[in-house]
Amino acid sequence: MSTLDVAAGAIRRDETVEIVMLLAFAGGYIDAYTWIIHGVMANAQTANVILLWVYAMAGDWMQALHFAPPILAFTVGIVIAAWLRRAAGDRASALTILVEIVFLITIGILHNRLPNLAGTLGISVVAAMQAAMFVKVEGSVCSTVMITGNMRQSVETIFAVIYGGAPLGTLRKSVIFFALCAVFGCGAAAGAFATKVFPDLALGIPVVALLIVLLRCEATPREVM
């Protein structure tokens, strides 16, 4: 998609910078929350797989199996998102956010009684749905639940402008991806702080962010522009 298309507002509502930044904030937040509360990662299944096998090779199978549920829950979330995409079409993004909100509210309510089931499994499903459904910003592939790919694209874009003769307008893309990394980090910081200060209410913050995303996804094209 060209810069002119972006300037003209010819992008999907769920690919706008505002929405993707809010999702990145929520992504970093819930990953920090899950790590502090449960000692696993909600988003970064690579880390869970590595830790699973590190402990397994050390013979500590109980600790290794601690990392299996979020991996399985993440798989379930991907399946749910894929089904929504097929069943709901253009409404899939908004429905995904609605499901995420319901999950997070339910997790917050059940956390005191069923901490492992509500937290580890529920949040991994939320993370997977977000990872599967929101994969672009202004037409470019991105992630709202981890920063590795976003960092790579930011650096590659700057390199292309300096050494490859890419148009200066390409720098916009680099700035967006750098901002995604920064916002994700801010979300993680906020999640760590809130989880330690008021753990029982900590999930209210990403719920608010997702509510804003839902409203923006449901806005008319005129409102989005």
UniProtKB/TrEMBL annotation:
<protein>
    <submittedName>
        <fullName>Uncharacterized membrane protein YoaK (UPF0700 family)</fullName>
    </submittedName>
</protein>
<keyword id="KW-0812">Transmembrane</keyword>
<dbReference type="Pfam" id="PF06912">
    <property type="entry name" value="DUF1275"/>
</dbReference>
<feature type="transmembrane region" description="Helical">
    <location>
        <begin position="20"/>
        <end position="41"/>
    </location>
</feature>
<keyword id="KW-1133">Transmembrane helix</keyword>
<feature type="transmembrane region" description="Helical">
    <location>
        <begin position="201"/>
        <end position="219"/>
    </location>
</feature>
<feature type="transmembrane region" description="Helical">
    <location>
        <begin position="91"/>
        <end position="111"/>
    </location>
</feature>
<dbReference type="InterPro" id="IPR010699">
    <property type="entry name" value="DUF1275"/>
</dbReference>
<feature type="transmembrane region" description="Helical">
    <location>
        <begin position="175"/>
        <end position="195"/>
    </location>
</feature>
<keyword id="KW-0472">Membrane</keyword>
<feature type="transmembrane region" description="Helical">
    <location>
        <begin position="61"/>
        <end position="84"/>
    </location>
</feature>
<feature type="transmembrane region" description="Helical">
    <location>
        <begin position="117"/>
        <end position="137"/>
    </location>
</feature>
